[in-house]
Amino acid sequence: MNTRSSNDDVITDLQYRQKTPDYYLATLAPAIRSGLTAPQLEAIAALLAAAIPQATPKLVDVRFSIDLLLSRFCIVLLVGKDSRRQRRLPLPESIVKIANPVAVIVLLVLLNLLISLFIFLLAYLVKSALGIDLFSGISLWDKLQEVGRCLVGRP
C-alpha cells in the first residue's frame, strides 16, 4: 500500500528545469561515482545533457489549473514552431483541406459566442446595478426562471 501523499510526487516545471547533468551525477552512489574516471564522467554528463529536453520559446504559453470538488484539471495552450524530430504521418490532402478551415471556423464562432455572452452579461449586470429598467415589468431573470420551469415541466 502506498502511504505517500500525492503532493510528494509533484515536481514543478521550475524544479524540472533546474535539474542539470551534475544533479543526476550527484545522485549516483559514492562507491559507483568514485569508480568512474574523468572521461567516463564527462561522457555520461554529455549523454545526460543531450537526453534532457530543452524548452523552446513559445509565442503563446498559457497554463492554468481548475480545481473542482473531486478533481483538478490542467489547461495548457502553447503556440509556437514545431521543432520535434519525430514527424507525423501526413494526412490525406483532401481531409486537411476540408477539416482545417472547418475547425478554424467552429473555434472562431465559439470564441465569438463566448465573448458576446460575456459582454452581454457584463452589460446586463451594469444596467441592473444602475437601476435602469429597459422594459417595464419584464426582467431577464424572471424570463429565465419561466423558461426553466417550462423545461422542467412545472407551470
Side by side, the strands of the main sheet go 1-2
Helix content: 40-55%
Query: What's the Cα radius of gyration?
Result: 28 Å
Per DSSP, the total helix count is 6
Average pLDDT score: 80
Oligomeric state as shown: single chain
Order of helices and strands: HHHHEEHH
Q: Pick out the low-confidence regions.
A: 1-9
First and last CA, distance: 55 Å
The total count of strands amounts to: 2
Strand % is 5-15%
- Anisotropy-based shape: elongated
The biggest sheet amounts to: 2 strands, antiparallel
* Strand-pairing-aware structural class: mainly alpha
Question: Which short descriptors sum up this protein?
Answer:
elongated; disordered N terminus; two-stranded antiparallel ribbon; 155 residues; single chain; 6 helices; mainly alpha
Written account of the structure:
By secondary structure, the chain is mainly α. It has a domain at 92-155. It has six helices and two strands. The protein has helices spanning 13-17, 21-26, 30-34, 38-51, 93-130, 140-152; strands at residues 60-67, 72-79. It has a two-stranded antiparallel sheet with strand order 1-2. Strand 1 (60-67) and strand 2 (72-79) form a beta hairpin. The radius of gyration is 28 Å and the shape is elongated. It starts with 12 loop residues before the first helix and ends with a helix. The relative contact order is 0.04.
Topology:
Blueprint: H1 13-17, H2 21-26, H3 30-34, H4 38-51, E1 60-67, E2 72-79, H5 93-130, H6 140-152
Antiparallel strand pairs: 1-2
